[in-house]
Amino acid sequence: MADEELEALRQQRLAELQAKHGDPSSDQSQQEAKQREAEIRNTILAQVLDQAARARLSNLALVKPDKAKAVENYLIQMARFGQIPGKVTEQGLIEILEKVSQQTEKKTTVKFNRRKVLDSDEEDDY
């Protein structure tokens, strides 16, 4: 990943921290910061993913936006640390999706709360 992208990410983080700690900022500057963040994310993902993988990720974002965001964050983090040697193919993205799905898998349990009826056992009405 290029040094100017890392510097842009650092500047963005610095701006976010300054905004959180009471620096006067208007809504317009916050919108601009969000747009810059989205542009940076898109450029990083464009560098990391090939066209088929990017299409799959955008389809996933339509159906499950939270899972797509988690995968994007995972890919960006891997790119920052240099763990991605080349462009991720669609098959590689599928493997990453499976990893993220296993990590965020929620087990659902159904618990029946049966109400006790105050009937006597002597009277069996069948």
TrEMBL record:
Keywords: Acetylation, Apoptosis, Phosphoprotein. PANTHER family: PROGRAMMED CELL DEATH PROTEIN 5. May function in the process of apoptosis. This is Programmed cell death protein 5. GO terms for cellular component: cytosol; nucleus. One of its GO terms (biological process) is apoptotic process. The gene is Pdcd5. Belongs to the PDCD5 family.
